[in-house]
User: Which sequence fits this backbone?
């Protein structure tokens, strides 16, 4: 694709209007929206209103003027993006904390089942938290196996199958419906981590018959650094599972100040402590931006951006680690390269922000709302220049940052 | 105290300058800073910088430019307010979630001990979370007893004594040193909830020999609605306790993306998921305001404001539920009244914001940084007017809000 062809694609892009809704800095090609989504223009005034008016002027009264319902309200908006009903999703805590709640609850759901089945190389916090969860339920264990062995690992002892829908390194995507059916056939629940899926690929939890899910607010949802996460519990399970993190905000009547814990009905029981309203304001601005977006247009453009970037990689003899079939991947593209870290740093020095994942993955988030074909063309030509010139071999680029 | 006398006290108040550092709305006497502290003027530009520059312009690079260290940096600043060393405090999650982490860790600390001892009528989330924590450790139990029976309940089976330093209703304050000594004499750990203490009364965790503590960021620290909370672990215990919420941010090397969990050394192991930086920006602005404050001046003024309000209550024949001895209470005053809810609503309608705690407590936060003697004089005269006129008997004031 030539630069002119890329410009023509941008001009014809039905999502083109969304680009102006983000405050993208000059001189940066941002291909890291799958690690931290950029600032929606509406977020700044929303935060100013949250601080100045809601906190500053209305003070404690704001709890009765929209705050107390924020976790359910924003959850309902996210539900529309993942094929769930509004009363099946709530915003709370972090993805890690929500994984813990749901894994412990799932392990307690059927006393005859004791195992969490998951994948080695899953996003680390999923496995770390699974370790923590099995430590909290007598007899529980974690069985993490390679992807090819998951199917055989699901058996009559499996309480829950914990899978990340789109892999954070390779972008490989599980077929949610068929894996859910396989888990159900063995009597197990499924817990899907949607962190690299929501806002990236079509997700239909209820069509797939999914049981449980969690996901991140700060990637494709553009909810701000460390934005609150969400969790989904299928309605049929809502009264049968309870949170081990039995905090007051999940109590049936938090302002009765009773000594004994009584879980709220519905999704409110998954709340623990008091949620940050500053964080909620950022997340809601990001989520609101998605409300009118045509998800099919996002999927189509994501596939086209991927094809464009894959062709650039092929021309540069880079090994693509992501699946060729768009139905089997997320919305990022990864290449393997022995100097992936230095390459990533050299790109950043030229204004192309992607990221590195240990040990050899160079990863680019393809975010159709604000990324265009000309952006990918420019990133590709800078990547070509760095590879051909050998600029990435500068020792300065090998020096690791705290966060890679 | 006459209004003129109150004005004279304000004019001589060494903390008077702090009032201008808060954006207090006109027409409001805010006596609810112990439920939600008001907006520090510095918070609005701090949030604008966090959103516009750090998130918007620097994007993912900000993780290497101050974000990754924020939990420890802000924790270190809070440490100075509670008699801890900077490396003994970290900011993370909510008070509820932090209670869970520390209670489970404390229950696992000595396999011969199985009991959490706490107080009936403790702040609800402390007891609710303790219920959740004992559900996660085989053989563990919660023994919540009335204050007078706590001492006798601490025995050789006690793993941890969970006490809230200042009671959220009555403002009664435990003597931290003597209760810690009593717990230690029985071989138990102590876990102090400082939510109504930090920024309110002098706290010296290390002088008291305390083991563990948690606290809230959104009350006297003025960190914003639902601000992140903090936790303290005495250095001698730091390598012997680990979090059941074993998320990636608490890993020894989170960006190695290893499958197996390995807790970080020091306080970082108490992090779970990715913290919200918008929430952190609000909290840091609140905490920074405290850095130059003379804590002894705060205690002295708190006691004087209490005496002034107690005298008003006595004149109005209100039953004071808070201790007369300033060493034995926090920085709020509570009165019992059968129509406490309606009284609270009638006060709010006149611009005096205090709060109601079920069933009969009318509570006023006495926050020396921005509350003056004339404020208390005015609140008292409005309270007198409402009581004498019977205005609080209007049925509209009996109608409950979602959050009381």
Assistant:
């Amino acid at each position: 694709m030539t630069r002119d062809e890329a410009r023509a694609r941008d001009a014809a892009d039905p999502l083109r209007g969304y680009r102006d809704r983000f405050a993208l800095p000059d001189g940066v090609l941002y291909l890291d929206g799958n690690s931290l989504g950029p600032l929606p223009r509406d977020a700044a005034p929303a935060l100013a209103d949250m601080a100045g008016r809601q906190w500053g002027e209305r003070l404690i009264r704001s709890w009765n003027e929209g705050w107390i319902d924020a976790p359910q309200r924003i959850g309902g908006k996210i539900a529309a993006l993942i094929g769930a009903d509004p009363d099946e999703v709530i915003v709370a805590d972090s993805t890690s904390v929500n994984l813990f709640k749901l894994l412990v609850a799932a392990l307690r759901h059927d006393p005859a089942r004791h195992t969490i089945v998951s994948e080695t190389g899953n996003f680390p916090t999923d496995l770390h938290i699974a370790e923590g969860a099995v430590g909290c339920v007598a007899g529980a264990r974690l069985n993490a196996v390679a992807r090819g062995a998951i199917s055989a690992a699901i058996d009559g002892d499996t309480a829950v199958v914990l899978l990340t829908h789109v892999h954070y390194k390779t972008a490989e995507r599980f077929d949610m419906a068929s894996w859910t059916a396989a888990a159900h056939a063995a009597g197990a629940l499924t817990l899907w981590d949607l962190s690299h899926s929501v806002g990236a690929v079509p997700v239909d939890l209820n069509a797939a018959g999914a049981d449980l899910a969690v996901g991140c607010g700060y990637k494709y949802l553009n909810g701000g650094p460390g934005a609150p996460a969400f969790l989904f519990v299928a309605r049929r399970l809502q009264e049968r599972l309870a949170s081990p993190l039995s905090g007051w905000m999940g109590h049936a009547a938090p302002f009765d100040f009773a000594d004994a814990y009584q879980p709220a009905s519905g999704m409110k029981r998954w709340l623990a402590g008091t949620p940050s309203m500053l964080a909620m304001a950022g997340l809601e601005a990001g989520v609101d931006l998605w409300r009118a977006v045509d998800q099919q247009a996002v999927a189509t453009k994501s596939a086209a951006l991927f094809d464009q970037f894959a062709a650039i990689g092929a021309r540069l003899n880079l090994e693509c680690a992501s699946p060729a079939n768009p139905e089997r991947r997320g919305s990022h593209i990864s290449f393997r390269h022995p100097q992936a870290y230095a390459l990533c740093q050299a790109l950043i020095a030229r204004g192309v922000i992607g990221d590195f994942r240990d040990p050899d993955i160079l990863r680019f988030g393809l975010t159709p709302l604000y990324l265009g074909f000309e952006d990918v063309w420019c990133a590709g030509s800078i990547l070509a220049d760095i590879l051909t010139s050998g600029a990435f071999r500068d020792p300065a680029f090998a020096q690791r940052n705290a966060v890679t």
